[in-house]
Description:
By secondary structure, the chain is of the alpha/beta class. Helix content is 37%, strand content 13%. Helix 6 links the parallel strand 6 and strand 7.
Amino acid sequence: xxxxxxxxPDFYNKFALNELIINMLNEYPECFYDNxxxxxxxxxxxxxxxxxxxxxxxxxxxxxxxxVLKEYNDRGIPCRFTFTNSLLEEKHLYDTxxxxxxxxxxxxMNEVLVNSPLLEEYIRKNYPGYKIILSTTREIKTVxxxxxxxxxxxxxxxxxxxxNNTDKLEKLKDKDKYEILVxxxxxxxxxxxxxxxxxxxxxxxxxxSADFPMCRAINRDFYEFLGNETFIxxxxxxxxxxxxxxxxxKLDGRAFNVYTVIESYMYYLVKPLHRDxxxxxxxxxxxxxEG
Length: 291
C-alpha cells in the first residue's frame, strides 16, 4: 500500500517546529495516523528573488543554507524550493543567491516548484538533477488543462484548490501524479488570487512588502478554515480521497503564525486521542528552544 505523503510548509522559518514534528513521528509513530510520511518540506531561504506565493524577505548566509539542507536531507526528507515568482525576466535568472542555493542542494533528492516557463527552462538546463513540480500558483482550474500539464515532464502537479470537494478529483486520471492543497486559508473562489500572486512576485523582486488591501483572510485561525468549501476534512483525506487514489497532500502555512501551523499538524497528522499530549510536548519544546 502506498504511503500517504504530507508536504509541510516553510523549511527555514518554521525549521524548529518541523524538526520537532519529524522527530516525534519517527520516535512515537503510535501517536500519528498510520501509513504517513513527510514527502518534503517546501519554502525558500530568505532573500530568494525567485520565490513566489508568499513574500520571504531577508538574508541567509551560506552556512545556514547548508545547515538546513543537511538537517532535512539526513532524515531522508527533500527540501522543495518555492521558486514560483511569476514576474521573472531573463536578468533575474542569474541571481547569485538563488543559483547558489540550487548548487548547494543539487544532490538528486531536492525539488523545485515552478510557475514561470522561463525559470523552468533555465533550471531544467542548468540543474537537471532536480525534481520539477508545477505549482498551484499556475491556477489551472479545468480537468482538461491540468491533465495536459501532467503529460509534461513534471514529477508532481499541485492542483488548484478549486478542485477540492468536487467531481473534478474523481475525473482526473493518474491520481498519484497530483498533489492536493487541503487547507488553503484563502477564501473560496477568491477573485483576487491572481493579483495577490503578482503582488507577492513584485514585492519579492523589489525587496518590498506586499499590500493586500482587499484580502479578508489574512491571519485567520486554523479552525476558521474548516468552513471553507475547499477545506478537506481529515475524514475525507484518509477515507474518500486516499481510497480514490490520491496520496499526496500539501498543508498550507508559510504565511501563518506557528500556532496556526501547529493546529494544522495536530489535525491532519496526529490521532485525536494523542493531540493534546503531542501539542503540549511541541509547545514546551519550542518554549525551551526560544528561552
